[in-house]
């Protein structure tokens, strides 16, 4: 219990510090909220009784008018202040939510590919995104302050009611305790629901997005996927609905029980106060004040009971946020080698006894790979689908780490090199490359504005890669948005054009190592042939790794590695491998008709 209490105090302190550093006005609003909301019920509670007494006793009419004016004046003033505070809080809350959302986005950007590709991590990201819009620092602190405000209100109302009948205090305490127990049961079940349903919720969100995604639309239409996707949506929704049904049923019974408690208390209060009013022990005005107190008591006690029990859950976001921010990845490793320690003019990459299996898998996709890529060497990689070609590249670029063995850069284990610095060495065109729905310039230079020299360099790359004429036809040139998703003036590019832009982006990065994973898969034979020759020219001064199913395309490579069942089956030059008349030769002969 002491540990939980200390953790909650630490969460509360962190909330105060976060809000204090973000905007001190929020703390002022919260403290002002306590006072205003605590006082807000009392004009009705106290003055309604005074008005009734003034009327029943036949006192001066102006006294009644005075109490009525005081009641509405106090209510107006408190409501006006409360509205100003509420609207100010709403605006600052939106700003804070954006700030927290940006922090989560930044953290996501600093999670390496291996961890980001883990389903469990994706579940955590979904939870944290839900929390950003739910119980963040400010909402959690608001709940605590609101609870304090209601406690103050509750104390005042209990004192008023106790002055009328002391037995009401005992009944009130019993009701609060029972309400708290019921809220605890409800909260415990809700926590279990969140944990059990998050994976199904993520699946539902994913498949629902497919129905709205423009990238998927062509395949949906062509392969008549619409009915299938709708059935998948319904199936996943059904799974989530099963959780919701149980949660709603339990919470429904609990709400009925809480309502019955309120009925019992109200009947008890009416009887106790009513008897006194009937016997003349208290006035009609006191009876009216007691009933008004009763109504406010039920509201305040329910809020306090729920939030005292929910106190631990109100800091849900803070626990998730702190845990997520402490999430360590390759970006946060303490590396002892930086970019300036590496001779980028003489790069050598060595795979030494490397074996690899994907996380949560028992099957090795690469087995005992030993291979050295010399400086400025062009290595071609070929093999059947599933032979381990892309896995080889994922290890080389350190999207994953080897299960066994080492990968060395200039004799240094790459795990010792700063992860962000290491990524600067590579420019990659992946099979599943992506372009942003921003301008061509944004996609290639990865910035909003470029200098004249940068623009000229990009334009030159368009010319060299057969996209010069296409660029000239775009009325906004490099400022043309890719796709119409975010702009009506955007352009829908063909698969080949998109692939060429991905290649241009990789070349523009001007990294010493160029990795091309099936870079011509969307190109026609003529364009493909042109790209091969251009690759041979543009990669002369770069270390290049080139993966292709098209055997002839590797002819310009200095060395070729033939992968088969996770191993390097053959290795050598184009002529050596043809002379060997092994697997590479068989591949070449099978595809020879395409080259005649």
Quick overview:
The chain is of the alpha/beta class. It has helices at residues 2-22, 24-39, 42-56, 61-109, 113-116, 119-132, 137-164, 167-210, 214-222, 226-279, 284-309, 311-314, 316-325, 389-396, 419-423, 440-445, 452-464, 468-473, 495-509, 525-538, 574-580, 583-591, and strands at 349-356, 366-373, 378-383, 404-409, 412-413, 426-429, 513-517, 543-547, 559-564, 567-572.
Task: Provide a descriptive summary of the structure in words.
This protein is of the alpha/beta class. The model has no long low-confidence stretch (mean pLDDT 80). The N and C termini lie far apart (80 Å). A hairpin with a 2-residue loop joins β9 and β10. The strands form two sheets. Strands 6-7-8-3-9-10 form a six-stranded mixed β-sheet, with helices on both faces. It is elongated. It is built from 22 helices and ten strands.
Number of strands: 10
The biggest sheet, with number of strands, parallel, antiparallel or mixed sense and barrel status, is: 6 strands, mixed
Main β-sheet, spatial strand arrangement: 6-7-8-3-9-10
Annotation field: number of helices? 22
């Amino acid at each position: 219990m002491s540990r939980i209490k200390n953790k909650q105090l630490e969460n509360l302190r962190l909330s105060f510090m976060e809000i204090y550093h973000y905007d001190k006005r929020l703390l002022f609003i919260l403290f002002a909220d306590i006072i205003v909301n605590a006082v807000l019920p009392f004009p009705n509670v106290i003055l309604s009784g005074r008005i009734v007494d003034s009327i029943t006793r036949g006192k001066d009419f102006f006294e009644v008018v005075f109490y009525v004016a005081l009641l509405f004046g106090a209510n107006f003033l408190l409501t006006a202040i409360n509205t100003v505070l509420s609207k100010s809080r709403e605006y600052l809350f939106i700003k804070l939510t954006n700030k927290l959302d940006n922090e989560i986005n930044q953290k996501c950007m600093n999670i390496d590919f291996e961890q980001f590709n883990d389903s469990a991590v994706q579940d955590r990201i979904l939870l944290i995104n839900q929390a950003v819009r739910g119980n963040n620092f400010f909402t959690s602190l608001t709940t605590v302050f609101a609870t304090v405000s209601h406690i103050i209100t509750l104390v005042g109302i209990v004192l008023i009611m106790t002055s009328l009948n002391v037995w009401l205090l005992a009944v009130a305490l019993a009701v609060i305790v029972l309400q708290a127990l019921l809220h605890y049961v409800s909260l415990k079940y809700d926590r279990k629901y969140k944990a059990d349903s998050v994976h199904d919720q993520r699946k539902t969100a994913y498949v629902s997005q497919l129905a709205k995604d423009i990238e998927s639309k062509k395949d949906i239409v062509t392969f008549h996927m619409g009915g299938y996707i709708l059935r998948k949506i319904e199936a996943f929704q059904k799974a989530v609905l099963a959780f919701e049904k149980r949660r709603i049923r339990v919470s429904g019974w609990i709400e009925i029980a809480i309502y019955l408690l309120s009925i019992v208390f109200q009947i008890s209060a009416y009887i106790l106060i009513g008897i006194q009013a009937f016997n003349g022990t208290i006035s009609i005005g006191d009876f009216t004040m007691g009933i008004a107190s009763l109504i406010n008591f039920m509201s305040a006690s329910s809020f306090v009971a729920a939030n005292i029990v929910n106190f631990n859950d109100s800091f849900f976001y803070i626990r998730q946020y702190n845990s997520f921010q402490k999430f360590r990845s390759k970006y946060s490793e303490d590396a002892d080698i930086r970019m300036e320690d590496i001779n980028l003019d003489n790069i050598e990459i060595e795979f030494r006894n490397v074996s690899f299996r994907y996380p949560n898998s028992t099957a090795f996709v690469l087995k005992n790979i030993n291979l050295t890529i010399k400086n400025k060497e062009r290595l071609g990689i070929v093999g059947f689908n599933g032979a381990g070609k892309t896995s080889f590249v994922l290890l080389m670029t350190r999207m994953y780490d080897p299960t066994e063995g080492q990968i060395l850069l200039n004799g240094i284990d790459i795990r010792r090199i700063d992860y962000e610095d290491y990524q600067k060495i590579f420019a990659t065109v992946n099979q599943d490359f992506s372009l942003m729905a921003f301008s061509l310039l944004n996609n290639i230079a990865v910035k909003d504005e470029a200098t004249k020299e940068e623009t000229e360099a990009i334009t030159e790359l368009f010319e060299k890669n057969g996209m010069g004429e296409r660029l000239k036809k775009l009325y906004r040139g490099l400022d043309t948005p890719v796709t119409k998703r975010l702009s009506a003036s955007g352009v829908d590019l063909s698969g080949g054009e998109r692939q060429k832009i991905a290649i241009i982006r990789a070349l523009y990065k001007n990294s010493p190592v160029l990795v091309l994973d099936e870079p011509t898969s969307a190109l026609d034979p003529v364009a493909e042939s042109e790209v091969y020759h251009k690759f041979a020219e543009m990669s002369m001064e770069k270390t290049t790794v080139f993966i292709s199913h098209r055997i002839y395309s590797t002819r310009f490579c200095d060395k070729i590695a033939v992968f088969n069942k996770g191993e390097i089956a053959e290795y050598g030059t184009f002529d050596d491998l043809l002379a060997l008349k092994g697997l590479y030769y068989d591949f070449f002969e099978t595809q020879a008709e395409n080259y005649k």
